[in-house]
């Protein structure tokens, strides 16, 4: 049970500013875990896109909020067909929404956690919504007996769950609090950006990024990317040389990605959010990917929205994709009504998204996105969801 702070004794905290009253807010967080074992996993007949679900679980027998794990043994879609996809699903919820963090891992033959992946923020769950990882672990690596992840052909999944309750507790007292809540731990906060320059060698002539990994100092930071972690953890060429050569990421984008890994910050994100999103997706940096999505969402325009929609689709950026489709449909409705959105619309922009080069290119390369956008528009214009019509004043 969390301890509530109490008014100070005389003489406590004498060096700090003194307030006549204070307030302490406690947000209740429930932590619990769940283990799911799938026997004879290699015999699973589910094809790509087909799903297995665990039994439901909750934080306590009295908790009406029910969860389950959802796994696609052969991936969710074509992009993830070589992987096992794993998600946390909110089955039932008495509230309108709940925010939760989660961590997935596998238990090996020694019952040790391995191949862990965790959410980088508290996600918003509503009933029937799931969050997780499309590319949790490669199937060939999982099925390789030498890796010891399927002892007796049993797959054991372990989920640690932090459930944020919306109710808050407040306490007002006179005097200073005896103790303040501790700051959130952050092992990045003391890292210097110069570390990136010491550890990463960029060769502009060959457009090759060479990552030299220190023996101990930064190994824990690199482990934040499951992809980098796998390279150095297993008997791969990168592990033997203690070095990775990356040829498919622009040097400046690569620098920014490494700066994020070492410091938790990406100061140049706004300048390269599109390319950084692609890199974050490739190297499974979920928190950086979310940051890129937010930056791109805030800069949507008539000219770039089609290209942004394609980018979101290519890299499974679902929130960005939804925002881009919503922007397209909103602009279409506003144009039909003869209105203009002051935030995202001005006289210098094209008056029709369909006239932009990005839209025309999308029709040729990604026609399914055009269909998705029109389906969303049709749904939004159904009577129960339609925009209320206003009478135009007669002049």
From TrEMBL:
Biological or metabolic pathway of the protein: Protein modification; protein ubiquitination
Gene3D superfamilies: 6.10.250.3030, 6.20.250.50, Apoptosis, Tumor Necrosis Factor Receptor Associated Protein 2, Chain A (2.60.210.10), Potassium Channel Kv1.1, Chain A (3.30.710.10)
InterPro entries per UniProt: BTB/POZ_dom (IPR000210), MATH/TRAF_dom (IPR002083), SKP1/BTB/POZ_sf (IPR011333), TRAF-like (IPR008974)
SUPFAM superfamilies linked to this entry: POZ domain (SSF54695), TRAF domain-like (SSF49599)
Xref: PROSITE patterns: BTB (PS50097), MATH (PS50144)
Keyword Nucleus: yes
Domain annotation BTB: ranges: 197-265
Keyword annotations from UniProtKB, A to Z: Nucleus, Ubl conjugation pathway
Domain MATH: 31-161
GO aspect biological process, one term: protein catabolic process
Family, as annotated: Belongs to the Tdpoz family.
Listed name of the protein: Speckle-type POZ protein-like isoform X2
Gene: SPOPL
């Amino acid at each position: 049970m969390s301890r509530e702070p109490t008014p100070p004794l005389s003489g406590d905290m004498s060096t700090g500013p003194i307030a006549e009253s204070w307030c302490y807010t406690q947000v209740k967080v429930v932590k619990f875990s769940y283990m799911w074992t799938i026997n004879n996993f290699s015999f699973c007949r589910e094809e790509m896109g087909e799903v297995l679900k665990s039994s439901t679980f909750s934080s306590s027998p009295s908790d009406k909020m029910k969860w389950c794990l959802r796994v696609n043994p052969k991936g969710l879609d074509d992009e993830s067909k070589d992987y096992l996809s794993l998600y946390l699903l909110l089955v039932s919820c008495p509230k309108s929404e709940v925010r939760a963090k989660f961590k997935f891992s596998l238990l090996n033959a020694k019952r040790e956690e391995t191949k862990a992946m965790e959410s980088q923020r508290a996600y918003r769950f509503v009933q029937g919504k799931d969050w997780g990882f499309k590319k949790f672990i490669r199937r060939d690596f999982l099925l390789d007996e030498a890796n010891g992840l399927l002892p007796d052909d049993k797959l054991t999944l372990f989920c640690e769950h932090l459930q944020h309750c919306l109710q808050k507790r407040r306490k007002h007292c006179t005097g200073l609090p005896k103790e303040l809540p501790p700051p959130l731990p952050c092992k990045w906060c003391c890292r210097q950006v110069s570390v990136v320059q010491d550890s990463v060698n960029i060769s502009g002539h060959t457009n090759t990024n060479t990552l030299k990994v220190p023996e101990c100092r930064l190994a824990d930071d690199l482990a934040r990317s499951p992809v980098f972690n796998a390279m150095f953890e297993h008997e791969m060429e990168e592990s033997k040389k203690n070095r990775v050569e990356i040829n498919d990421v622009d040097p400046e984008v690569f620098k920014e990605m490494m700066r994020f890994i070492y410091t938790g910050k990406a100061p140049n994100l706004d300048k390269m959010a599109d390319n950084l999103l692609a890199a974050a997706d490739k190297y499974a940096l979920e928190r950086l990917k979310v940051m890129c999505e937010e930056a791109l969402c805030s800069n949507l325009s008539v000219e770039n929205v089609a290209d942004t929609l394609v980018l979101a689709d290519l890299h499974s950026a679902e929130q960005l994709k939804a925002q881009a489709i919503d922007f397209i449909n909103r602009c279409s409705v506003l144009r039909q009504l003869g209105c203009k959105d002051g935030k995202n619309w001005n006289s210098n922009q094209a008056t029709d998204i369909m006239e932009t080069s990005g839209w025309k290119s999308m029709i040729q390369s990604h026609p399914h996105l055009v269909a998705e956008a029109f389906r969303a528009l049709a749904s939004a214009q159904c009577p129960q969801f339609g925009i209320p019509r206003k009478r135009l004043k007669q002049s």
